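Regression check, zinc ion case 131:
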Amino acid sequence: MGGKLERKVLLKKQVQDSILSYCKIKHPNEAILILKGKSKKGLITIDGLSIPPFSFSDQTFAGFPQSFLPLDLAYVGTAHSHPSGSAQPSVTDLHNFFGLVSIIVQSPYEENSDIFAWDSQGNQIPISFEQ
Ligand SMILES: [Zn+2]
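Current build output:
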């Protein structure tokens, strides 16, 4: 352990449903959303979403200009979809990392098992789902 902070993501059910629906609507293009919540002692609780202004996406990339974002301390990261069906973060994803956590949802966006959380180094963070 070496005193390393054990991180975990807590995803509220309502937010989870919204992310999955949004990914389905945008398919076959990627969807991208900003995650809102709070982080305390390694626990990142996600309880809200925001659609980033001026976002753009195609079948292999989704992004947004960070300079247009209002400063909001509740932003903890982003969620985006991978229509290809693999939830591994791409090099581009890691270069465009925003906040503390990157959630990637793989097609077909149906189950908890399609949802993965990553840190800026590309290490997986465990997620628990909560009502
Ligand atoms: Zn990606």
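Comparison notes: Residues 80, 82, 90, 93, 104 surround zinc ion (CB under 6 Å). The two ends are 30 Å apart (CA to CA). No diff flagged against the previous build.
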